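We emphasize that the prediction below concerns an isolated chain of 107 residues; any contacts that depend on oligomerization or on bound cofactors are therefore not represented. The input was used exactly as deposited, without trimming of termini.
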Amino acid sequence: MRRQYYVYILSNKYKTVFYTGMCNDLARRVYEHKNKLSEGFTKRYNLNELLYYECADNPESAILREKQIKDYRRSRKLKLIQSLNPVMTDLSCHFEATAEKSHIAAS
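Result of the prediction step, given as a token string:
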């Protein structure tokens, strides 16, 4: 089974700040952000709503895409988010059950 990589964008409930990240387990990573399990930018600014994600086949292409999105101006990030998620709702509900199991298994 091939490993999948993800590039994602998080925001706060007011959609005032965006964070772009990359991981190999989106359910686990969103769970960590939502439960503030790691220190840093997302915890400080309460960024726990998953607004956008895309898949990559390898870590190199995911890292390149993450850097590309990080260089976007806010307006371009908004267009990207709205292309997948026009209402800008939290997409993490699709991953919550998986994330809980994933986190318990890792403990």
